[in-house]
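Here is one chain, start to finish.
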Amino acid sequence: MGQGHRSKRWPATAGRFDRHRITGIRAARLQPPLPRSILMVSPSQALAIAIQHHKAGRLPDAEAVYGAILRQVPDAADALYLWGVARGQRGDRPMAELLCRQAVEREAKLRLFDAELGAPVRARGDFDHLARLFAADVALRPGCRLLARSGSSEADPSLRPQLKDVTLCCIDTFYHDHALVALKNCLAQCRFEDVLFLTDREFGLPTIRSRVIDRLPTSEAYSRFVLKELHRHIETPYVLIVQWDGFILDARLWSEEYKAYDYIGARWTLFDDAANVGNGGFSLRSRRLLEATADPEVTELHPEDYHLCRTHRRLLQERYGITYAPPALADRFSVERVATGAEIAEPVETFGFHSLFRMHRVLDPDQLENFLDNVPPSTLKGGSMILLGVSYLNTGRSAQARTIASRILRMEPEHKDKDVLLQILKQAGS
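Its structure:
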């Protein structure tokens, strides 16, 4: 998070704050004193509390906490940036620009966020959207990995592998902000021939090219679009499909061997036959495969990856010569399964991942509550969210498992999986 060591606590004098010491511009008035509860948490936890205030529109309270964080950790770039966003929401554009620019100079991951997402939104003066977008980004900050040379902590963008002939593509008309963060996190590690966001509005970003499509209101509509329409939008020989809950984890595990096949995605552990590759949420596909699925005899469409890899597999192989990657290679490419206790000692290392229940590795634990605030109710109480709690539990993070199970039961006390949620709480020590 860039907010200092988690064990650090506020000094007894934390509270009132003169922004002149941070920005060089004399404040007209001091911030209000902090509540005692803020003094008892780490800067990272304080940032999460400030974001809660910020999202609720309590800007003076949020600014007071941002100020206190900066008093304790002067290089806390996230707090400084969000303070700038708050000033923009209050109509103070010059101060907003100054604070955001100063913050960007302090932290490489923040520079990437601002270059790809933040600065264009700020230039349009849409600070309300910027606040939401930054909240989504900071929650997923552990999933943004910058490459550096051996022995150096300085990010070096030139180390990113060039994925020749590959378009990075996300199709999403629902989770816009999280989808943009997923694309940005991919750009942190790799370079592409094209970067395409197929969505229902224009975002006007420098690298991520928006193309407006009709809204996809259901997962069935998404499946139909992928199998029947996507080929019209991809101009390169390959497309790497990512989703808001699945993106690149480790560019060092990229291999040109993945492009030797028309399709590669995570192996399905549910199937033990030869057609168990695989999941489509994070998948590399050839353009000729996209064109092949437009065949009118490809009629079973949802879920698109299941029918592409199992129902229509023989047709695609025999009529179009489509090839599927072997399971061993797919296991290097991606993962889509609930985490197990074995991963505590031996984490699963893959090029990418897919599914909400694998996001335990990319979510900031202090920002989990904010992340849960930002997902729709249907996602919050869905099966994948419960499995995320199980992944946390299995990997020794009981507090996060407890947070998820408690939140779901508060929303829906008689949830259909109440017994599972209560079992999570019991095992988490609640």
